[in-house]
Design a protein that fits this description.
The complex is a heterotrimer of chains A (312), B (300) and C (250). Chain A has 312 residues and is an all-alpha fold. Chain A has 13 helices and 2 strands. Chain A has a domain at 29-240. Chain A is globular. Chain B has helices at residues 2-32, 39-59, 68-91, 101-123, 132-135, 149-171, 173-183, 185-190, 195-217, 227-242, 247-267, 272-286; strands at residues 139-142, 145-148. In chain B, helix 6 (149-171) crosses helix 7 (173-183). Classes of the chains: A mainly alpha (312), B mainly alpha (300), C alpha/beta (250). Chain C: One of its GO terms (molecular function) is ATP binding.
């Protein structure tokens, strides 16, 4: 069974990496951003499997982005691997601090508390003029183990990098979802009392999922910051988090690839609406969201999945 | 001493405003069990509607009797409630009753997104100013401090709104029915209550209160797109602190947030937004359901 | 003399003005089969809930495996070997029968639940199916929980609780929600499966025929107290039990 998964992952990498040859600059940038955001959404999907939805995942997206930027600007670090690692580490620590705290909340309270945390960060960053306030900061282009490409090669390298991260993270999360802990997560969504009376800790499960989401959010934020060359407090704003939730709902919790497909769909819809209906893009998004909720309650993943919980 | 007084007065003014914008949110949640993100949009629409209506009033020669603009303000909120209340509740929300709470948050998030753009389509993106009602009441002098009289009118409005909601709920027959529905809607339905009508009424009342908040605020600010976003964020904090669905909770939450924010603005301006959520986090740590929420024990 | 496996001493519990447990003291020998009887609200389920950690007693001690477990979390008590079933079977509705069983197996596995090992591992599935077979419900393994009859749900609930190293099994009304002609077959099946493991059984029951047929000792509850504690025949002849519990002279 595992071999099928690794085969799928390799195929996904090959197909996505081929994009670096075929895609024009704008599309490659769009895909890189969508995949980076998809990582954040994958974290939300992990939590959704346990029955909670974070409305504040922008917190980690923003911490990741700012960690990378501050490290790059203060210490002159430009290596993308090191920056990603440091951001992931920062988010791991913050996630481990808040995870146990949030793990006893469910439903609206979990959603709103996570939202509150991200808004605290947004508010604090906006007022901190030393690190750019609402204007944010710029971050220089990354290097890859000493190689410092420019122009199209830079774009390509960044794109391949995010594709590799997405495939690795996606594969790991799939393994987790299918694992014994993954089954306990699904059971928690269903019946916490049963899980506790079997002897497993629901709070631990919630904490694991939260921390994984934090790390994924941080990695996504780092890549987005490097792709944009700029970070600002909007990374933590609630509408940013709202879009992550949107993608997670669109994807559903059954399929990992669906998360990235949904993220790309959102970015495509956004850029085309921006181009053709600049004033009604949110309107389109809202209607789209309602349609998904009504017609696809289990998300895109349910279109390909055989049955709940068993989808590939 | 002056500082304490300033913080208290500023805090009360802000709390009054907060209460008006939050009480509708908590009422709607209590009855419909839906945490309405679109509450912020309804607030913004109230602001636009009152800006338009007050503008029209003065354009039609309202200078002769400027106090009539206050009637225009309230009328704007009533109009918003009459049009959007039934449209949203009957047209959309009623299909989602009894569904997952978080899913319902997303439904109202979708409505929020839609309304944000609808506002731009109707009112454009340029700011509206209607300062007349704001300056009309003159200034108030408290010790060495000057305040705009209108600010105190907002406190008065909050008290009137609070009393009206409380009296309606506790002293009228219909209010008692609403409280019964808040307590247990299934039971109320079997007792012969027309729950559908209560839901519609409560949502219209919530819409009116949101729009009233916007309408009263419009003269104090420039009405621009994106107004609703910040409002919903603070209103959430207030409502969560007080306990979802509790009217007295919303009042206490508004006071707590109002005074903390005023203190922060004067003592530590960097922490203005931080403090609101800090208060919320502290309250939730000690009272996970908020200050006035009903707690339920599951029977197994 | 067999060893005492569970010793409840002077346990008290009240909810506001309502006394749910008053001076409850019981010693349960290893391998015994106890039943708890009494009208609704007499304190049977409160007893089960206190022993399994859902409710913390106001005072008194509950000794198991040389420790006072009163007030411990359900999860800790479960890990020590006291398991329970529920009046309303507690199952995961989005999962199949087999997956519910796999869940129980994953949590009770020797090394603890893994982040890497597949939940649907062939070995784990074999083990799950073996347990399902013991309770005669293996044929339903691929069905989702909402499709099951009341009896099958009850059996699955009990089977899941028996997946670990169970020393004491508390059954809260094992035959409630079960069709009347299924009651005896189900109890036969459950008691046979449980006895084969040597587990100590405490069950709550309203049906006196089931009580006399399956239990060795009966605790009769009334108003939060134990009013009789003896062999079934003796307890059912007790005038107090007849007045407050069974309603009619036997």
């Amino acid at each position: 069974m595992r071999s099928k998964l690794f085969l799928g992952a390799t195929a996904a990498f090959a197909v996505l990496a081929a994009g670096s040859v075929i895609l024009p600059d704008w599309a490659m940038f769009l895909c890189a951003m969508a995949l980076a955001k998809g990582l954040v959404c994958l974290g939300i999907v992990g939590m959704m499997r346990g029955g909670v939805v974070s409305f504040g995942q922008g917190l980690y997206y923003c911490i990741g982005a700012y960690t990378a930027t501050l490290v790059a600007n203060s210490f002159g670090v430009s290596d993308i691997f090191l920056l990603t690692l440091l951001s992931a580490l920062a988010c791991l620590l913050v996630g481990m601090a808040f995870g146990p705290l949030l793990s006893s909340y469910r439903g609206i309270f979990f959603a709103m508390l996570s939202l509150a945390l991200s808004m605290v960060l947004y508010g604090s960053l906006s007022k901190m003029s030393v690190i750019g306030g609402t204007d944010g900061l710029n971050i220089a282009a990354p290097t890859f183990l000493g190689w410092a490409p420019e122009g199209r090669p830079l774009q390509t390298a960044l794109y391949i990098y995010v594709v590799a991260i997405v495939v690795i993270a996606g594969t790991l999360m799939r393994i987790y979802f299918d694992s014994e802990q993954g089954l306990i997560t699904l059971a928690t969504r269903d019946n916490e009392l049963r899980v506790e009376y079997l002897g497993a800790s629901v709070r631990n499960i919630m904490t694991y999922n939260y921390v994984f989401g934090a790390v994924l959010g941080g990695i996504g934020g780092t890549i987005a910051a490097l792709a944009l060359g700029h970070v600002d407090p909007e990374f933590a704003f609630w509408t940013t988090s709202g879009e992550f939730v949107f993608v997670a709902i669109l994807a559903g919790y059954l399929s990992v690839p669906a998360v990235f497909v949904a993220a790309i769909i959102l970015e495509l819809v956004r850029s085309f609406s921006n181009l053709y209906f600049p004033n009604t893009w949110q309107l389109a998004l809202g209607i789209f969201l309602l349609v998904v909720i009504v017609l696809l309650p289990n998300g895109l993943g349910s279109l390909v999945g055989r049955r709940k919980g068993n989808a590939a | 001493m002056d500082l304490v007084a300033t913080i208290l007065v500023d805090g009360l003014i802000y709390a009054g405003w907060l209460f008006i914008v939050s009480v509708g949110l908590t009422l709607v949640f209590g009855v419909l069990n839906i945490l309405n993100i679109a509450h912020g949009s309804l607030y913004a629409i109230g602001a636009y509607a009152s800006a338009s209506l007050v503008g029209a009033y003065f354009a039609a020669g309202g200078q002769a009797f400027p106090y009539g603009s206050y009637v225009a303000l309230i009328l704007a909120a009533v109009l918003v409630a009459l049009v959007l209340g039934p449209l949203l509740e009957r047209g959309l929300l009623r299909f989602f009753y009894g569904r997952d709470e978080v899913l319902n948050v997303l439904v109202t998030y979708a409505v929020f997104l839609i309304l944000e753009d609808v506002m731009k389509l109707i009112w454009g993106v340029n700011p509206y100013f209607v300062y007349e009602p704001y300056t009309l009441l003159g200034d108030v002098e408290i010790g060495p401090l000057f305040y705009v009289g209108y600010d105190f009118a907002v406190i008065a409005a909050a008290i009137v709104v609070g009393l009206a909601v409380w009296l309606t709920l506790n002293r009228t027959r219909i209010g008692k029915v609403v409280l019964a529905v808040i307590h247990d809607s299934e039971m109320s339905q079997t007792m012969g209550v027309n729950v559908q009508r209560i839901y519609l009424g409560a949502f219209m009342a919530g819409t009116f209160l949101a729009a009233l908040g916007g309408a009263l605020t419009a003269p104090m600010i420039s009405v621009t797109p994106g107004l609703g976003v910040n409002v919903i964020i603070v209103a959430f904090a207030v409502v969560i602190i007080g306990g979802l669905g509790s009217v007295p909770g919303a009042a206490i939450g508004a006071l707590l947030v109002g005074i903390s924010r005023a203190a922060s603005v004067h003592l530590l301006p960097e922490a203005e937004l931080f403090i609101i959520y800090f208060v919320m986090a502290i309250v939730l740590l000690f009272r996970p359901e908020g200050l006035f929420a009903k707690t339920q024990v599951r029977k197994i | 003399m067999t060893r005492t496996v569970l010793e409840v001493r002077d346990v008290q519990k009240s909810f506001g003005a309502v006394t749910a447990a008053k001076d409850i003291s019981v010693a349960v020998p290893e391998g015994a089969v106890f039943s708890l009887i009494g009208s609704n609200g007499a304190g049977k389920t409160t007893f089960v809930n206190m022993v399994t950690g859902y409710i913390k007693p106001d005072s008194g001690s509950i000794r198991f495996a040389d420790r006072d477990i009163a007030g411990m979390a359900p999860r800790q008590i479960t890990r020590m070997g006291i398991h329970r079933s529920f009046q309303i079977a507690q199952l995961c509705n989005d999962l199949t029968v087999e997956e519910n069983m796999l869940l129980a197996g994953a949590i009770h596995g020797a090394s603890g639940p893994s982040f890497l090992r597949r939940a649907h591992d062939p070995e784990a599935r074999d083990r799950a199916v073996a347990t399902l077979e013991r309770f005669n419900i293996a044929e339903h393994r691929d069905r989702l929980v909402p499709e099951l009859s009341g009896g099958v749900k009850k059996l699955l609930d009990i089977a899941m609780a028996m997946a670990g190293d169970t020393q004491i099994m508390l059954l809260d009304e094992p035959t409630s929600g079960v069709a009347s002609d299924e009651k005896f077959p189900i109890m036969d099946l459950v008691m046979e499966a449980l006895r084969s493991t040597g587990v100590t059984v405490i069950f709550v029951e309203h049906d006196m025929d089931i009580v006399t047929r399956y239990s060795e000792r009966v605790l009769a509850f009334y108003d939060g107290r134990i009013i009789a504690d003896d062999a079934p025949d003796e307890v059912l002849l007790d005038p107090e039990v007849q007045r407050y519990v069974t309603g009619t002279p036997a």
